[in-house]
Each structure stands twice: as structure tokens, then as C-alpha cells.
Prior knowledge:
alpha/beta, Rossmann fold, six-stranded parallel sheet, two-stranded antiparallel ribbon, 12 helices, binds adenosine-5'-triphosphate, binds magnesium ion
Amino acid sequence: MIPESHPRYESLITRDRIVEGVEKGITSLHGLMAQGRGEAFDYLIGEKTSKSAHRAEKAAAAVLLLAKRPVISVNGNVAALVPEEIIRLGDIVAAPLEVNLFHRSEERVNKIIEHLRSLGAGKIHTKSDALIPCLEHERAKVDSEGIFRADAVLVPLEDGDRCEALVKMGKTVIAIDLNPLSRTAQTAHITIVDNIKRAIPIMSEFAEELRNSELAELQRIVKEFDNNKNLADAVDEIISHLRRAQK
Ligand code: ATP
Ligand code: MG
């Protein structure tokens, strides 16, 4: 047991959840490395939601509410870290979930689907009968009624190639990625540079707040959001945090 008073409590608990995910067969071994990379950036960010991340989370909530066929992509790290939270967000914005794995195996896909269902998930797209163009076969598999025909996709902790391929298909892509310099972060339309554990609940709060808003208000929020500027702000916030930490 890790005592709550431990200065790295949150981070250690998160690691435990990823390890547990691997043991249950829902998270891949590579997921451990992805988490390590994420943690390093979270340290640089100061392990809190920055102003720029907050803005991106609001714009992302508006995009999901405006979308006609939104889908939330779930991988092994997401399923281990925030399963309940992602189910709740999906419910609020009426976005079905779809399990989409970089290191795909049918066994792991099914385990994640079962895991999400056991926690009360509603609609999950479970077919793999379509392919995202320009990607190698296993990494391209999606549901023809899910990600394939979605107009907006939330891809937390996504790989750069797949993010780019989804953008090329004409979808509005929202990424959650602690590394503001990753190809995913640089390619998505809305990049949330925040830990997924903090980002999803904040997106849900925004979605609840905005869900009865006029269409025009939601469109204004999306139009006023500038991802390039926001990413530059995210980098500036990291630099300021490092300067403060050095003193
Ligand atoms: P890219 O493919 O976009 O160039 P990459 O190859 O460096 O990036 P991947 O392993 O493909 O990275 O994707 C994992 C990404 O997820 C990393 O950028 C990492 O910072 C991020 N990440 C890991 N854990 C979290 C987390 N808990 N919250 C948010 N982001 C995370
Ligand atoms: Mg990658």
C-alpha cells in the first residue's frame, strides 16, 4: 500500500493502475513506456492542468457536442486509467466508444470491451470491418459505423501516424497528449496537453455546462480556438514552470 502522504502518491497510484492493466491483459507492455514518457512531460508541466489545456478542453467539449457522429477511441492505457470517466464523458456528449489498439490483438480488444461493459458502458462499436487508408492493415482496422464514418474523434494517447491518417480522412481530431511536440499533438485539430486523468473529468464538466447552449455559442467557442497558438502557449507554460522551479 502506498501511503496517501507520499509526495508522489498520484503518480505511484497511476503506475499501479497501468501495471494492473497489463496483468489483466487490457494494457500492452508498450503501454508502460507510453506512461513513462507521459509522466516525464507531466513533471515538466507541473502536474496540473494549465490554462492552455483548460481552453483546449473547453473547445473539445464544444466539438464533441456539435458533432453528428462523435466517437471516443479507447486503448489499453485509457481503459486502465480512466474507464469510468471516459464512459461518463461518452454519455454526456452522446459519443459511443470504440476500442482501437496500436498493438492490436482480438483477445485484448475483447478484454477491454468486457472491462468497459462491466463498468456500465453504453454503446460500444465492436466491429473491425473497415480500414483507415494509408495505414498498415492491423493498425488501420476500425468499425465501419464507428471511427470510419465519424465526423469527430477523440483520440487520447494516440500514435502520430494514425492521428494524421484520421485528419486526412477529413475528421475533426481531438488528441490528449502530454507531449506538446509529439506528431499527434502537432497534427490534431484540438490538442489537449494534459494528463488524461485530469483532462477527461474537466471535459465532462465543460460538456455538462455547455450542453444546453445555443449552437451558435458552441460554434463560436470552436472558431475562436487556435490550436497552433494554444500549443505555443503550452510550451511557454512549460518554460515558465521550469524557470520558477529553478529558483
Ligand atoms: P507520436 O507517435 O505522436 O509522435 P510518440 O511515438 O512519441 O508520439 P506514442 O507512444 O505513440 O508516443 O504515444 C504515447 C503518447 O501519449 C506520448 O506522447 C505520451 O506523452 C502520451 N501520454 C502517455 N501517458 C499519458 C497520460 N496519462 N496522459 C496524457 N498523455 C499521455
Ligand atoms: Mg508514436
